[in-house]
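Each record in this resource describes a single protein on a pair of labelled lines. With that in mind, the following record should read easily:

===
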Amino acid sequence: MKQGRPYPLDKERRVRVKTELAKNDMTISDLARAINIVQPVLSEIINGVRRSKKTEERIAAFFRKSREELFPSRTKKELADMRENQKESA
């Protein structure tokens, strides 16, 4: 039985980080090298399908932002709604 992602795709997180990357003329690969993390894991964290408070803090610190500015907290209801919306659009 396929379990799926532990967290739904969080487009807002992705947009916020992509905006910072664009401001700094960087790619996700550039950021991965700068903070010493493998790019696939970094992409999952940016997209919200994997959570790592420590890595989120490293990314935010790199851009001189607070963690919350780039990675908004989500309630269980928000996560459930996001998951449901993704099922509907699939």
Remarks:
- The chain has a mean pLDDT of 90.
- Residues 10 and 74 are 10 Å apart (CA to CA).
- The longest helix spans residues 76-89.
